[in-house]
Amino acid sequence: MASTFSPEKARAPPALPSSAPPITKFKIGLCQLKVTDDKQKNILHARTAIEEAAEKGAKLVVLPEIWNSPYSNDSFPVYAEDIDAGFDASPSTAMLSDVSRLLNITIVGGSIPERCGDKLYNTCCVFGPDGKLKAKHHKIHLFDIDIPGKITFKESKTLTAGETPTVVDTDVGRIGIGICYDIRFQELAMLYAARGANLICYPGAFNMTTGPLHWELLQRARAVDNQIYVATCSPARDSGAGYVAWGHSTLIGPFGEVLATTEHEEATIIAEIDYSQIELRRTNLPLEKQRRGDLYQLVDVQRLNS
Q: Which of 11, 55, 67, 244 is the most buried (most CB within 10 A)?
């Protein structure tokens, strides 16, 4: 009976087979950093945290959203870097390139404000163990919200939305990249899973209103819906900042289980990812074979048009 449901038609184009990662088990480091208004200090601090994570065995290190700058529309233009212009114009990514090469690790470099001509983006850079830039993700969904009496913030006052989903093959598997608000849109995570991602990394800075209610909930939902790993990395909380982050950086497993997390202070989480758990969960709970392609469909527009 299930064959009449046409599960192969539930995604267009059909889902790519899961990639075979170069390694199936490794340690990930999530560096929850306190951010100051001193860019050079933030860069040196992030480098130290990356080095400490690598010393503890991490082969993949993730940084927070906007780790080199205060999180504010006033700060984004001031702290923005021209990543494409080269390292002199982007000291933050120069550091990430250098340290990834020296330590022979993969880095999902959180995000920084990026200047591209007359536009600003919230940008995540991924560097491989050779120090080369492997991918650059512009935050697709801008954080424009208004909760009266709680929080109002509109990234669109200064930032431009990205246009391209980002999946990158690395030495530690195929990774999908989202930034903070991107996590709320399940279609993006479904698209990444359909492109064969083993892991989605979301550098993010949820606030004190939405963080307690939704931060862990959304991470677990994205993981369990797609039966993949989800890693998040937040700035540490600074109660004196204009924007106060919730913290609680976390690694979620493919069954929706919390594998490692922390509170709101500065911390580096070291945890293990074992990709064999993905296949185990998909065998035990074969969602992909049970989708109702006769009733609904996820369309990957970029793949369909390529």
A: 67
Name beta bridge partners: 154: 144
Catalytic residue among 139, 201, 216, 233: 139
Phi and psi angles of residue 75, each rounded to the nearest 5 degrees, phi first: -85, -35
Contact 55, 31 (CB under 8 A): no
Residue 236 near residue 32 (C-beta atoms within 8 A): yes
139 is catalytic: yes
Whether 189 contacts 226, CB under 8 Å: yes
Q: Is 65 annotated in the active site? A: yes
Cβ partners under 8 Å of residue 166, min gap 6: 124, 135, 136, 137, 176, 177
* 158 within 8 A of 174, measured Cβ to Cβ: no
Find the helix or strand (DSSP H, E) in which 26 lies: strand 25-32
Instruction: Output Rg (C-alpha) for the chain, integer angstroms.
Output: 19
The SS3 assignment for 277 reads helix
Structural contact between residues 70 and 92, judged by C-beta atoms closer than 8 angstroms: no
Among 180, 201, 216, 233, the active-site one is 180
- Phi, then psi, of 30 in degrees rounded to 5: -110, 115
**CA dist., res. 202 & res. 139, Å (int):** 10
Catalytic residue among 39, 59, 65, 216: 65
Q: Is 143 helix (H, G, I), strand (E, B) or coil?
A: coil
* pLDDT digits (tens), the chain, 306 positions: 446 899 999 999 999 987 788 899 999 999 999 999 999 999 999 999 999 999 999 999 999 999 999 999 999 999 999 999 987 899 999 999 999 999 999 999 999 999 999 999 999 999 999 999 999 999 999 999 888 888 889 999 999 999 999 999 999 999 999 999 999 999 999 999 999 999 999 999 999 999 999 999 999 999 999 999 999 999 999 999 999 999 999 999 999 999 999 999 999 999 999 999 999 999 999 999 999 999 999 999 999 998
